[in-house]
Design a protein that fits this description.
The protein is built from 17 helices and 16 strands. It has three domains: about 300 residues, PAS domain (Beta-Lactamase, 2-Layer Sandwich); about 60 residues; about 160 residues, Histidine kinase-like ATPase, C-terminal domain (Heat Shock Protein 90, 2-Layer Sandwich), CATH 3.30.565. The strands form four sheets. It has a five-stranded antiparallel β-sheet with strand order 2-1-5-4-3. By secondary structure, it is of the alpha+beta class.
Length: about 600
């Protein structure tokens, strides 16, 4: 029996286990490399995303600032404001200036707009009628007044808490010079609050801080960070804040530790253009923190699978050739699949471009279809219009001939009477052509205030010849004003289609009555057109608003009128409904959101 020495036995064990140990070490190194590489990649991507998010937020804030940039200089240049500064004791000028500032503030969505004299005392304000009116208040301690008084900058910006209202806001001030003297000046100040901007940040889950030149945070999606510094403030800075009353009763709080107080993530900082402010955004890591570990585990799993595959191959040497062939086939398939994916991606990009082009062409075609349908409807509805135009023209011709004879005779009284009749006839033709031009114009896709009742009356007036030829009678039940916010041309298209259909039905019906109603019901504007015709068969009602579906005879319609009207109503947030009443009447109801009451009040004012 051969005896194996301990040294040779150890070497044999090492030879058997060395490959496994080497593979294990290699896997650990690869997993560590994957972890480090993915960590760096994730951090870099997080930093880029944070910068992008910061740019979006900064652009939003900058846009809100620029929106009011030109208002104080324009207000200060008005003659009324200059007159008030020259005559501060004239109450009539003060009242007129208060009204001007109030209107300007409402029109530009400003929170406050006021005028300071050379001593920093408010002479007029947009909130003159409120309990916390600025009129008579001394704001000479505010930096924006101090800088404007020294004439150091044409426009001065400042953010602080209002000492009168207690509400924070952005102040923009402009010096008003009305004379050559050093005290012949005033200051126009506009204030806007960023509370809506902060609310939008909070709703969007943003972690945003905006700090002033002294690193005190004054805007934040989270109220707990407001009026807290980003660093320790010196006594001089604290004294300045107190003198300016920049944040009123809000003393600077505990210093914010960005790494401790905010979620862990990438921190991006930049200056707000045109100001001394700094905006800071934090993009939390969220699920990204697991990416490095997932990458390391994936490498480990892949290494283990590769090791097991190698072990299996070594144990199955007989199948090496077959396995190699399978591997080559698999690689080929992977390459083919990769090529297919690349090709599919290219096709997808081409399809996306083609889809965008198709959508643009579809929108254009739809507008053209609406306009064509409108002109076609007008052509059918106004078939008798030529007679209405020819009749006044024939009358004009007769009166012209008569007037020539009267002039020859010297009968000036009769000439004057004839001219009056001809003037009325021309005015009638001008009105008729103006209504036709207004109705036939192409939509410019603008939403304006539209009175459904007035529009219905105008369309009925233009269709009176077609209505008369059909022997129909229109019964109007129209409220004085039924206002909606809509595209004027599109609303006229709906009313024209509904009224034309009713006239077509009345022409063949025993009952010639057509009913048109317009009213406000529960905050909705409703316009209804009804007739006494046979209505739409039960089996066809489900397809009533489908394109190219019609119950009329051949050559009497393309089936587009109701489909176009239904689509227009839906685009305006409304609905077009069909109703058959027990009394044997057919109704089409156009229901749209009514114009808000505040809009009506502003319209009347």
């Amino acid at each position: 029996m051969t005896q194996v020495s301990p040294r040779h036995g150890l070497r044999a064990v090492l030879r058997r286990r060395l490959p496994a140990l080497f593979c294990t070490l290699l896997l650990l190194v690869a997993a560590g490399g994957a972890y480090i590489g993915m960590s760096r990649h994730a951090e870099a991507q997080l930093a880029r995303d944070a910068q992008l998010r910061l740019s979006l937020v900064a652009d939003t804030l900058n846009a809100a600032i620029k929106r009011i940039a030109g208002i104080p200089p324009l207000v200060g240049a008005t003659g009324m404001v200059q007159s008030l500064l020259q005559h501060p004791d004239d109450e009539n000028i003060r009242n007129a200036t208060n009204d001007l500032l109030a209107r300007t503030a409402r029109a530009n969505d400003l929170d406050d707009l006021f005028i300071l004299d050379a001593q920093g005392v408010t002479q007029a304000s947009s909130n003159f009628g409120e309990a916390g009116s600025f009129v008579g208040k001394d704001y000479s301690f505010r930096p924006y007044f101090q800088i404007a008084r020294k004439n150091e900058q044409p426009v001065v910006s400042y953010y602080g808490v209002g000492v009168t209202t207690g509400r924070p806001g952005y102040f923009l001030a402009s010096r008003i010079a009305f004379g050559p003297g050093p005290e012949d000046f005033g200051v126009a100040v506009a204030k806007t609050e960023f509370s809506r901007l902060e609310s939008s940040w909070a709703e969007g889950g943003e972690h945003v801080l905006v700090s002033d030149a002294d690193d005190v945070v004054f805007l934040s999606a989270d109220p707990q960070f407001r009026y807290r510094p980003l660093k320790h403030l010196s006594h001089a800075t604290l004294d300045t804040l107190n003198v300016e009353q920049r944040y009123a009763r809000h003393a600077p709080g505990v210093v914010i530790d960005l790494l401790r107080d905010l979620p862990e993530g990438a921190i991006a900082t930049r200056e707000v253009p045109g100001t001394a402010w700094q905006i800071t955004a934090v993009l939390p890591r969220g699920d990204r923190q697991w990416q490095p570990l997932a990458a390391a585990l994936a490498v480990l799993l892949a290494g283990l699978l590769a090791t097991l595959a190698a072990m299996t191959i070594s144990q199955q040497r007989a199948r090496r050739t077959a396995d190699q062939r399978i591997k080559q086939d698999l690689e080929r398939r992977v390459e083919e699949r990769a090529a297919e994916l690349v090709e599919a991606m290219s096709r997808l990009e081409a399809e996306m471009v083609e889809r965008r082009q198709s959508e643009a062409e579809l929108s254009k075609a739809r507008d053209e279809l609406i306009q064509a349908g409108k002109l076609a409807s007008m052509g059918q509805a106004f078939a008798g219009l030529a007679h209405e135009i020819n009749q006044p023209l024939a009358a004009l011709k007769t009166y012209l001939s008569s007037t020539k004879l009267l002039i020859a005779r010297g009968d000036t009284d009769s000439v004057t009477a004839n001219l009056g009749v001809m003037d009325e006839t021309v005015e009638r033709l001008v009105q008729l052509s103006g209504d036709l031009k207004h109705l036939s114009r192409r939509s410019d896709n603008r939403l304006v205030e539209v009175d459904l009742a007035a529009t219905a009356r105008r369309v009925i007036g233009l269709m009176r010849f077609r209505i008369r030829d059909a022997g129909a009678t229109v019964h109007e039940t129209l409220d004085d004003e039924v206002w909606v916010i809509a595209d004027q041309a599109h609303i006229e298209q709906i009313i024209l289609n509904l009224l034309k259909n009713a006239v077509d039905v009345a022409a063949d019906a025993t009952c010639k009555d057509i009913m048109v109603q317009a009213s406000l019901q529960n905050g909705m504007a409703c316009l209804s057109v009804g007739d006494c015709g046979p209505g739409v068969p039960e089996s066809a009602r489900g397809r009533l608003f489908e394109p190219f579906f019609t119950t009329k005879g051949v050559g009497k319609g393309l089936g587009l009128g109701l489909a176009i009207s239904y689509a227009i109503a839906r685009d305006h947030g409304g609905v077009l409904r069909y109703e058959r009443t027990p009394a044997g009447q057919t109704w089409f109801h156009l229901v749209l959101p009514a114009r808000p009451a505040t809009g009506q009040q502003e319209q009347h004012s």
